[in-house]
Amino acid sequence: MAVSGEQALFKKVKKGDLDAFGAIIHDYQSSVFNVCYRILGNRQEAEDLTQEAFLRAYRQISKYDLNRPFGPWMRTLAANLCYNHLKRARLNRVALEDERDQYQDDLQPGPEKVLQINQENQALYGAIWQLPESQRLALELRHFQGLTYQEMAEAMKLPLNTVRSHLFRARHKLAALLEEKDE
Amino acid sequence: MNKPNDHIPSDMLHAYLDQTLEQADIQDILQHLDHCPTCLEELKRLEGIFASLESLPEVTLDKDLSIAVLSRLKEESILSRGITWTLILEALAASTVISLLIPALKTSTWLPQLIDAQTEIQAAINIFLTQLASSWLVWWAGLRLNFEHFTKSLLTFNSLPAGAISPWILVLAAAGLGVLANYFLLRMNPLGNQNHNK
Q1: Neighbour count for residue A43 (Cβ, 10 Å)
Q2: Residues of A whose CB is below 8 A from B54
């Protein structure tokens, strides 16, 4: 459930108050950006998709239940948006090749990024970005958003067993990729 | 894990770490782990992944995205109002055309028999339906498909190159074409011909 101050803000947003929505964006943009970054692996794209996620959230604000917390709703929306973006990109070979180049750029961070992420975490990010998009989404929803299997199945619009399979495979592949890097 | 020497199935280990197992299954797993180094090693491997993911630091967002988002939402709001005005303009254009077209047809010398009360009503209904369809198309195009370039061109009307046609004109022209098409369809309408032949 949104805290009382936030609830007042959301009531304003539902009436079309853009300034109130600005305050909401301000509070949640960092966590939403991180969802996008973990899934996409590219800072610029993550910023673009974060913006797109907030635009969609505003357009779909009537669907948001004030009695439930906004953060998980918003972050799940963003995760799905990124997942669909990756899926579309995979279908477009040229776009995918461009993205791979961009991912490589991200895996070789500039000095300011090194300050934020040490080598071990850099390897983990790199391994996450090598997972297929469905496994990346499953990992995000379970480990970073704390969704149950059932909630994941609803968010991903997939059968429960398929979602579990994506998650378990993601963990195994992640472990294998990190072990490969250690050797 | 039906037999004592069987290893713990992989999905059971995951479910154990996700804390989604029944108490009885947890007891079975703990008992098995006491004497199975292979399963214990696999569990530790997965626990390592859990721990790594949990400790993964967040990256810093070094800019405020709210400005860009709000700016786009304001643009959409302007577009939405613009479309409302478009609908009004379309309705006015259609009314004007209808009010001019029907008396003109009545006074023309080459189609006097075609025009009677029945065809007038039919024409009005057809034109109304054409207008309605085109209006909904505009709504759909603007709000659902979010034609960014189209909206940008509307919003940057003054920056259009010389000679470029305004999208507003195109919308009105489309409405006019709809009315004209309707008129010609009406001319070929068997009902109208029937009346003409009477």
Answers
A1: 19
A2: 143
Name the residue in chain A with its Cα closest to that of B61: A30
Q: Which residues of chain A have a CB within 8 Å of the CB of B68?
A: 51
* Total Cβ atoms within 10 A of residue B31: 12
* Radius of gyration of chain B measured on its C-alpha atoms: 35
The Cα–Cα gap between A77 and B106 comes to 59
**Tens of pLDDT, residues A108-147:** 444 444 444 577 788 899 999 999 999 999 999 999 999 9
Q: Provide the domain count of chain A.
A: 2
Give the total number of structural domains in chain B.
2
* Separation in Å, CA of A124 to nearest CA in chain B: 8
pLDDT (mean) for B43-51: 94
A9 and A85 inside one domain: yes
Expressed as residue numbers, the domain containing A134 is 113-183
Cβ distance of B65 and A43 shorter than 8 Å: no
Q: Is the ipTM here above 0.90?
A: no
Instruction: Please answer whether residues B148 and B139 qualify as being in contact, where contact means their C-beta atoms are separated by less than 8 angstroms.
Output: no
Q: Are residues A156 and A104 in the same domain?
A: no
Count of CB atoms situated within 10 Å of the CB of A28: 20
Q: Considering only the beta carbons, identify the residue of A33, A55, A172 that sits closest to B72.
A: A55
d(Cα A2, Cα A4) in Å, to the nearest integer?
Answer: 6
Which of A46, A55, A45 has the alpha carbon at shortest distance from B151?
A55
Q: Determine the structural domain holding residue B121 and report its residue range.
A: 66-197
Is the domain of A81 the same as that of A30? yes
B118 and B172 in a single domain? The answer is yes
In this structure, the answer to whether residues A54 and A79 fall within a common structural domain is yes
| B59 occurs within a structural domain | no
For the whole model, what pTM was predicted? Answer: 0.64
Do B50 and B72 share a domain, yes or no?
no
> What is the per-residue burial (b if ≥16 Cβ within 10 Å, else e) of A147-173?
bebebbbebbebeeeebbbbbbbbbbb
Interchain proximity B56–A149, CB inside 8 Å = no
Q: Say yes or no for a CB contact (<8 Å) between A25 and B66.
A: yes
